[in-house]
Design goal:
The protein has about 425 residues and is of the alpha/beta class. It has 2 domains: about 130 residues, Aspartate Aminotransferase, domain 1, CATH 3.90.1150; about 260 residues, Aspartate Aminotransferase, domain 2 (3-Layer(aba) Sandwich), CATH 3.40.640. The protein is built from 14 helices and 13 strands. β6, α10 and β7 form a beta-alpha-beta unit. The structure holds pyridoxal-5'-phosphate (PLP). Pyridoxal-5'-phosphate binds next to α6 and α7.
Length: about 425
């Protein structure tokens, strides 16, 4: 490829950046000074607004001490519910359906413990082997707690292309299934499953279904009120930019707002009587009941800023930009990297794609550190995947082009 071809791509990237309605949000983020950050699906970056809401929480602690539980802005006592409500413009649902608590894995334990009720031959849990390992660990340990062995875990294998087929998922939902848990977006490949079709089939067969939205919340527009799965869990430190260790979210269908959680703790209690300190547990109504201990006030604090920023950007515009960025990344890969042995592992159809792109190359394990040395942060997932995530609020089309040009330079370096 000649220098003039590169110029053509650069001009195209600049034109797309200029036309981008979300371009100004990029300046709200602290971007690493080392270069281009394409790892927002592992840990989203900090925005100025997230930083100030964190400092506000620290300041409230300093000024108010214990009174922050009432007088903090927002009050710490209701913080988990308040932030849960701030998620509704991004994922759908209504007040009482969402709460922030624990971690994704802990919330999954709570929900599986509640909704997995093996009876006779109806005892299987359907999942997929590509799901995040922690989700599978939680499922396996819940099976053990319910007196089941691992033969009760039915894993729907991907096809030769590494992608899960919805037909195979539906075929797995037999009368012997007691629960389904799937990721909205598969973390390795970036495949977005047809959540509507699968949820409908599970519901029609009377099987409780939960989704892990960790790789889609904040980048794919969900309407959980329309989808109406039984429950969801998701982390808030990826596209929701809540910061390392930010508490996770938990969604509970309004159909289950009177459901008693399996695991009880005082912060799952009815707020009106929580401080009666009664030995009898009276659960809150809705998702709030599924909390266990105190909300992680300082770890949650950045979310007030970052969720406000996302709501202002608008999830539909965020999704549109994300698809344009990943589409551009795929187009550039085809044009500039395919001849170097790089192939695209993520579905090309926009409706089947999450927010990141998986590229395959035999030397992926060496290429990712080479990219980092050149200032481009992506990540490696064995055996041969380079994951690149152009997180929409903080990435430009020019960033994507620069990263692909660096990858090409790494592929052309003599060490490879
Ligand atoms: C990131 C992620 C998690 C993280 O779990 P934690 O318990 O919050 O650390 C879980 N599941 C999936 C699918 C993820 O992508």
């Amino acid at each position: 490829m000649s220098a003039t071809d590169t110029e053509v791509w650069k001009r195209q990237a600049r034109e797309r950046d200029e036309a981008d309605p979300l371009k100004d949000f990029r300046d709200d983020f602290y971007r690493p000074t080392t270069g281009i950050y394409l790892d927002g699906n592992s840990l989203g970056l900090i925005s100025r607004r997230a930083e100030s809401s964190l400092f506000e929480a620290v300041d409230a602690w300093r000024r108010l001490g214990v009174q922050g539980w009432e007088e903090g802005q927002p009050s710490w006592f209701y913080l988990a519910e308040t932030l849960g409500q701030m998620l509704t413009p991004l994922v759908g649902g209504n007040a009482g359906d969402l709460v922030l608590a624990g971690s994704t894995t802990v919330n999954l334990h709570q929900l599986v413990a509640t909704f997995y009720k093996p009876q006779g031959t109806r005892r299987l849990i359907v999942a997929d082997p590509l799901n995040f390992p922690s989700d599978l660990y939680a499922l396996k340990s819940q099976l053990a707690l319910h007196g089941q062995d691992e033969s009760a875990l039915r894993l729907v294998s991907p096809g030769a292309d590494g992608l899960i087929r919805e037909d195979d998922v539906l075929a797995a939902l037999g009368p012997d299934v007691a629960l389904v848990l799937l990721p909205s977006v598969v973390f390795r490949t970036g495949q977005l499953l047809d959540m509507g079709r699968i949820t409908k089939a599970a519901r029609a067969r009377g099987i409780p279904i939960g989704w892990d939205l960790s790789h889609s919340a904040g980048v794919v527009a969900h309407r959980l009120d329309e989808l109406d799965p039984d429950f969801c869990v998701f982390c808030t430190y990826k596209y929701l930019n809540g910061g390392p260790g930010a508490p996770a979210a938990l969604y509970l269908s309004p159909r289950h707002h009177h459901q008693r959680p399996a695991l009880w703790g005082w912060f799952g209690g009815d707020k009106a009587s929580q401080f009666d300190m009664s030995p009898a547990f009276t659960p809150a109504l809705g998702a709030g009941a599924f909390q266990i201990g105190s909300p992680h006030v300082l770890s949650m604090a950045p979310l007030k800023g970052s969720l406000g920023l996302l709501a202002e950007a608008g999830i539909d515009r965020v999704r549109a930009k994300s698809l344009a960025l990943t589409g551009f990344l795929i187009e550039l890969t085809d044009a500039l990297l395919a001849s170097h042995g790089v192939s695209v592992g993520t579905p090309r159809e926009p409706q089947r794609r999450g927010g990141h792109v998986a590229l395959h190359h035999v030397d992926a394990a060496q290429l990712v550190p080479a990219l980092r040395a050149a200032g481009v942060v992506g990540d490696f997932r064995p055996p041969d995947i380079i994951r690149l995530c152009p997180s929409p609020l903080c990435t430009s089309f020019s960033d994507v082009l620069a990263a692909i040009l660096q990858l090409r330079a790494a592929l052309e370096a003599p060490a490879n």
